[in-house]
Amino acid sequence: MNAPWKPAGLAHRDPFAAFVCDETTAEAIRPIANELGWSPDKVTGGGLRNAVQSLSVSASPQILFVDLAESGDPLNDINALAEVCEPGTVVIAAGQVNDVRLYRDLVASGIQDYLLKPLSPDMVRDAFSHAQAILNAPRAAEGAVERPHCSVTVIGARGGVGASTVATSLAWLLSDRQLRSTALLDLDVHFGTGALALDLEPGRGLTDAIENPSRIDGLFIERAMVKASEKLAVLSAEAPINSPLVTDGAAFYQLQEEMRAAFECTVTDLPRSMLVQHPHLMSDVQVAVLVTDLTLAAARDAIRVLSWMKSNAPASRVVVVANRVHASNPEISRKDFETSIERKIDHLVTFDQKLAAQAAKLGKPLAEAGKNTKTVAPLLDLARAVAGLADEVGEAPADAKGKKTKPAKEKIAKEKSAATGNSLMAKFGELKGLIPRKGGK
Prior knowledge:
The protein is α/β, with parallel strands linked by helices. It has 2 domains: 7-136, Response regulator (Rossmann fold, 3-Layer(aba) Sandwich), CATH 3.40.50.2300; 150-397 and 406-433, P-loop containing nucleotide triphosphate hydrolases (Rossmann fold), CATH 3.40.50.300. 41% of the residues lie in helices and 14% in strands. It has 18 helices and 13 strands. It has helices at 7-10, 23-35, 47-55, 74-84, 100-109, 121-136, 163-176, 194-197, 205-211, 218-224, 250-262, 273-277, 296-312, 334-341, 353-362, 366-369, 377-394, 408-420, and strands at residues 16-19, 43-44, 63-67, 90-95, 113-116, 150-156, 182-186, 226-227, 232-235, 265-269, 287-292, 317-325, 347-350. An 8-stranded mixed sheet has the order 8-9-7-10-6-11-12-13, with helices on both faces. Strands 2-1-3-4-5 form a 5-stranded parallel sheet, sandwiched between helices. It starts with 6 loop residues before the first helix and ends in a 21-residue tail after the last helix. 41% of the residues are buried.
């Protein structure tokens, strides 16, 4: 319905059509349609069912009005309409059910507005005027600078290190500060916090995608994504914990593919268990952000994840972020942690309990709640670095076989690592020696 914008297709469509359930509603719409220069004959009966049948064999109008009064399951029926409605159509629905949850679910499914019957002339006029404003508004794609898609995956070395906090902040910064249309994909389908951190209802889009991968296309993405701002949309879930979702990962991969076509940036919050279950999800990722804290257990698992990345996703540029770092007495010092993982920590975010609590209360990502604070400064640096790395990878020159070549610096580092012959896991034996021993009894 409100799918990716295709202005060329809209030029050849009817400007308006309405499918109502009763003559009273028709009489409320026809005078307004006439005022706006639309044909009153485009107001027909049959409600939503007739709309689905008609649009399955004919082009969708620019503005579509559907009456849900006779619908037993409005949400499912709107989903059926989405299957036949062409991209770019602005859909306005009307019904007799006064329910905020229904309104939110319908808007999340892709309709522009839901009007409560009986309809007044002012209500109809305002809804149609708003729809026209949406159609006539300039699009972000007009005059936009072409740049490579920025594909970022955020992985926590362990649970509780704040990977989801970093992912939501990174997505917000890429959209708000870098001015890139950004999708946040939270793949923790049972306990994900992507929507929660932005004070949004997650909707059913992600679970629908897992249950029906064949439905995933540009129209599905536009309908399923929940908008957090003009340039940021979220796909998350809170699936019931008594309902396991069985998938081979095909749906997740298809979602990533469609998001690349619809957005300039994709930030995926990837549970580390998925590296084992669905390793193919890392195949096209440009930048992998590994979030850790300065503890013995996190050092062990950071070593394991870095080793996995080197073997299974060698083309991804890895950025290490130490998060929730206490200013005094960390379990392992930064120097010893870097020695154990055989690389530098790229960004270090200190633990700010007051700011974290404030962000949770406001329903905002940490980066938005703590604008211009010292705590958020490393996250700003991270967003700039990630965008720069993604552009660098996307613009890398291709070799004779069409494959993108690795930067010289990366090749030198790889050769140096091979020459030393030291594996990352070999360092783990030394980690316990980094922890201060308690005095003997």
